[in-house]
Q: What sequence folds into this?
């Protein structure tokens, strides 16, 4: 029989899984990974969820929650670029629950048509709850992105900052997301993907 | 008094597949939204494709399996650890059991909690495997799926490269002898 860990109602910063009992964190974490929307059953709620190439709103922060069960060394940020226009800059980072930026790529030129763009990093997240975040400077740059996300994303705890979010600010106040599209971006502990 | 909470119960899985939301790579999501898996020719001779699996409870792996279409030539299926070091494999064996599951006997291995990769390689492009083609190669790579050229039989160390095509074979681990 498993020991029964104890959690209090105020324990919102503790990882939702006991690392010794749950699965390891994914080698790459995006908004559909188990650590994010997937564990909230988001896949069951979104129609047409295959990602497709298209533009996303610029200067907006796209954020999704991630549960880290044990120390996780980020070695790369990634985004899946779209199949047509590649333009402007992107920024990918991780915030704590207070809205403080912990690590980010800074503004980096988008590069590579239909490519998995990797941006190296070296930062270790301790077990806990965080938000992964993305913003871009161009309204025409294309990314592979999920569509029809609106309410399912909100119920999974996705967040946004509606303006002035590129490059990613050092401190933000998150709002609940009502964004219909989400680019495929995330973090990985691998040096290559 | 603080609430007490049990951890989410671990179901006693006997078979892991890459359709598992919990143990694999959101393959259910990929597969469901591209329709059911369909057989497609192996992308190139001697190519190996590896995909991550997450094990939460130590258990004895007894078989590896994949979902065949047309059978041809030789196949090798094996398990790598998170550092891409080969733990166990079938070796190069005859690709058999057309249009059905190929249940491959391996030396039983206790898999502890951790991250592993199941890799498959074939020596030809006549063989077809049921696979997901959702999205594009870069999208599938974003789940940690990777490939290695000139990798038949499976090498002792897998050198991961970004997928060259959208192609994720349907594979898994069995903790029993019958699938």
A:
């Amino acid at each position: 029989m498993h020991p029964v860990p104890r959690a209090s109602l105020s324990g919102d910063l503790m990882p939702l899984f006991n690392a010794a009992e749950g699965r390891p964190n994914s080698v790459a974490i995006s908004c559909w990974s188990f650590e994010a929307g997937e564990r909230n059953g988001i896949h069951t709620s979104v129609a047409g969820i295959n990602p497709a190439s298209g533009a996303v709103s610029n200067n907006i922060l796209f954020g999704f929650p991630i549960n880290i069960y044990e120390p996780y060394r980020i070695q790369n940020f990634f985004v899946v670029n779209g199949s047509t226009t590649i333009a402007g800059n992107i920024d990918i980072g991780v915030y704590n629950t207070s809205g403080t930026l912990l690590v980010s790529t800074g503004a980096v030129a988008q590069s590579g048509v239909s490519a998995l763009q990797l941006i190296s990093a070296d930062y270790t997240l301790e077990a806990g709850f965080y938000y992964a975040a993305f913003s871009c400077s161009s309204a025409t740059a294309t990314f592979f992105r999920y569509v029809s996300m609106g309410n399912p994303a909100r119920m999974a705890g996705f967040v946004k900052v509606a303006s002035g979010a590129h490059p990613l600010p050092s401190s933000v106040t998150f709002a609940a997301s009502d964004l219909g599209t989400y680019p495929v971006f995330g973090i990985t502990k691998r040096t290559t993907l | 008094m603080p609430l007490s909470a049990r951890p989410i119960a671990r179901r006693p899985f006997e078979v892991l597949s890459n359709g598992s939301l919990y143990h694999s790579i959101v393959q259910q999501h990929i597969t469901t939204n591209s329709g059911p898996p369909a057989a497609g020719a192996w992308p190139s001779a001697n190519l190996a494709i590896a995909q991550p699996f997450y094990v939460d409870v130590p258990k004895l792996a007894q078989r590896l399996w994949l979902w065949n279409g047309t059978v041809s030539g030789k196949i090798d299926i094996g398990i790598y650890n998170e550092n891409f070091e080969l733990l166990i494999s079938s070796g190069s064996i005859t690709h058999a059991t057309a249009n059905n599951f190929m249940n491959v006997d391996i030396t039983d291995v206790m898999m502890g909690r951790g991250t592993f990769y199941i890799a498959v390689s074939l020596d030809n492009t006549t063989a077809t495997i049921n696979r997901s083609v959702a999205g594009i190669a870069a999208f599938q790579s974003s789940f940690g799926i990777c490939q290695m050229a000139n990798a038949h039989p499976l090498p002792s160390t897998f050198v991961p490269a970004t997928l060259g095509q959208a192609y994720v074979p349907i594979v898994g681990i069995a903790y029993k002898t019958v699938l």
